[in-house]
Amino acid sequence: MVYDEAGQFIDESRMRSNRQSKTGAIQLRKTAARKIKRHRDRGVNRQSSDAILADLKYRLLEIYDLNAAGSLLTWDQATYMPYGGAASRGRQSAMLRRLAHEHFVDPALGRLMDRLEPCADKLPADDASLIRVVRRDYERAIRVPAEYVARANALFSASYNAWTRARPANDFAAMIPFLERTLDLSREYASFFAPYHHIADPMIDDADEGLTTATVQRLFAELRRELIPMVRAICDQPPADDGCLRRSFGEAAQLGFGLSVAAQMGYDLERGRLDKTHHPFCTKFAAGDVRITTRVRENDIRDALFSTLHEAGHAIYEQGVNAAYEGTPLGSGVSAGVHESQSRLWENVVARSRPFWEHYYPALQRTFPDQLGSVPLDIFYRAINKVERSLIRTDADEVTYNLHIMLRFDLELKLLEGRLRVKDLPEAWRTSMKADLRVAPPNDRDGGLQDVHWYCGGIGGGFQSYTVGNILSAQFFAAAIKAHPHILSEIGSGHFGTLRDWLTDNIYRHGRTLTPEVIVARATGSPMTMAPYLAYLRKKYGELYRLPQS
Predict the structure, then answer these.
(1) Is CATH 1.10.1370.30 the classification given to domain 205-545?
(2) DSSP for 58-108?
(3) Element spanning 12, H or E
(4) 96 to 75, 283, 484: CA distances (angstroms)
(5) Which pLDDT band holds residue 29 (cuts at 50, 70, 90)?
(6) Are 352 and 398 within 8 A, CB to CB?
(7) Is 311 in the active site?
(8) Out of 311, 340, 388, 398, which one is annotated catalytic?
């Protein structure tokens, strides 16, 4: 392969066969000669490593585009595709994912890595990081057969389509066959990485590099000890009145307000858009195309508003990654947990704060004068931060939210270990909800069917990222405030540039060039710690619910 100075690929065999390109070929050779001379002038002849690196990047770009096309099909299925397209969409998605996987596990790519690694210390830092990240991803990918990738993606597509109908119908029985096959596939996936300490470890490491089942269990046990007394102290009080949020709010106005705020936070609408879906998500097809979705309930303004801002947090992260990394594995967020820290930071730490609403509440009142015009800010602020033992994870408040995550994580481990059968999941769900939150769902729609994760992907390794994200959101925000104490006053005037710039400099722009541990340590001065998160919860909810400050 030959590349011009801009890094663009030229098919050399086609160039030779086309006499009209002779001048271009001569120019290419002259360009190559100049490059060699420059390297020699520096005392380093890197012609070979440059060519190999260019070859690697071209192959990675092809894989990137195949995966982006697959993601576009998934986005379409979750937004606009008619039900009738499910069967063909499963086939199409499976084919694209299989092709991307086959390209990535091509032994030729491994040989390129073998040739580059000995000289990695002589390459620019970003290229050295690329080699490290690709090696990690490659060594994991070659363990997974391409036919498994196709089989799994076909199932996930069919399962998602079935879930969109089963949940509204409260029909868990319809999903049992899909969930059983998904569980089998999840166990099969783990088997590719044997031996392991726990069957969930491979999936957890996929999402959050460096974490294991054991470390997550220890983290959850410590956090549970701190949260349970706080939940009881708050929930033993009379509940906050959130009736002002449960009036009739027009859909178009809800979507318009939420998207306007997201844009002011920093979501670039020239490179993004908002659409409706069953379960909100953010997806990236390119640096210039990062899309978010939301859902709307006309009788509860919280759903669309905070879902939109949550997904915008993900999108702001992706839009902030150095554009030079596009087309390579470096060009995305570093881990699921760090990614979730940004959605939770913007949704909760910023958008549920008092300063935020001191600025935005008058605009919301003007948008919905009949519903909120006579509601004082104090009532509204307390309502959006109401703590209660609720059924739905995505509606849960900041204090109880992690108990929902722990419940799902524990159920996943039992399913993977064979201690829980799929058909017994609804009853296990109700039992766990009673134990941890003292409420139980009256149906499966608000129980085992409420989360899309098990119905569009594997079981295991996903839910812990939400709690990791919650913990890191407070740790990152505290570090930003320490560096720039005026951030809170800026939020109170509707300005987010200082905060966003700090996040971009310390997290976003790096993509995957640094590991999650290094990102956290460099940005905050310490490894991940729950101390800032617990301090944040105690201060905010201690003031709201007049709890004794320890």
Answers:
(1) yes
(2) HHHHHHHHHHHHHHHHHHHHHHT--GGGHHHHHHHHHHHHHHHHHHHT-HH
(3) helix 12-17
(4) 14, 17, 45
(5) very low
(6) yes
(7) yes
(8) 311
